[in-house]
Amino acid sequence: MTFQEFLTRFNTEAKIIAYFIKIRYGDELRCNHCGSTKVYQRHTNHKVCDCESCHNTFSVFKNTIFEHSSTDLRKWFYAIHLFLNGKKGISAMQLQREIGVTYKTAWRILHQIRKAMSNKEAEAFFNAIVEVDETYVGGKPRKGNKDDLPRKRGRGTRKTPVVGVISRDDKRVEAGVAKPDRAGKKLSGKQLMAIIDRVVKDASVIMTDEFSGYNILKYSEHIHKIVDHSKEFSRGDIHVNNLEAFWSILKRGILGIYHHVSVKYLQGYINEFCFRYNHRENEHMFDTLIKQSVLV
Ligand SMILES: [Zn+2]
Predict the structure, then answer these.
(1) What is the 60 CA–ligand 1 centroid distance (Å)?
(2) pLDDT of res. 126
(3) Mean pLDDT, rounded, of the chain
(4) DSSP 3-state of 28
(5) In the CATH hierarchy, which top-level class contains the domain 129-261?
(6) How far is the centre of ligand 1, averaged over its atoms, from the C-alpha of 39 (Å)?
(7) What is the pLDDT at residue 263?
(8) Helix (H, G, I), strand (E, B) or coil at 6
(9) CA distance 176 to 187
(10) 82 three-state secondary structure
(11) Separation of 296 CA from ligand 1 center, angstroms?
(12) Which residues are within 8 A (CB) of 199 and not within 5 positions of it... i.e. 6 or more apart?
């Protein structure tokens, strides 16, 4: 959707509400209590509906990311438009300026959009050929803490390990934070397997690097192929290049836009980058996001 199309489609709150109702309820608005279709939108406030059958009054935004917000829906929708179309996302500071809200409101809106991005229905599982790889995201160790390890790259640092899985045929990605138990503790095979099992159900060919944690794959039904980084050129098809490309987008985004992300919110940011990557060729990405804005 171009910005011009966006402007004509969503220039009034009434249009936004009508569009939202279509996405959430289809052709017929239904009472969320009794299921009746004898439901009428109030003329004074289109968000609010009254049910003639059971006299229930409800908001069409109940149980969505828009609930409990008094911010103009045009600002919400513009924020979503910017968030989906910026390759690396948008910071709360930038959004605050773009839509004219407080920093706190901008932060909350972005957080809610990430919630929708994370709220996907069970999708088809990855199979055939998948790449699995880990990376480390995060800030510097705190100063003055004697327990902190010296700064190191990769495994064995204080950074947070993230495990990713990409399906080769349709290039879908899924990535999860693997919380380390103790500082410097390596990722365990069990943690790797938990994330692989979440998205790869059928026996598949799994490509990984030489990290010993992946030895656990011996005990699975998958065929494990290991990339040999000691050779100048990786052997033909055995590589994790797709994931390495995704990691670089993720890291550049987190560093460039968000500067620093605490472990508490890291999964939300990762889901944001996965959503954008997985829907990069989806013309209806905006509709998909609005569908996922319904949280139950
Ligand atoms: Zn009712």
Answers:
(1) 13
(2) 82
(3) 87
(4) coil
(5) alpha beta
(6) 7
(7) 82
(8) helix
(9) 12
(10) helix
(11) 18
(12) 125, 126, 130, 165, 167, 174
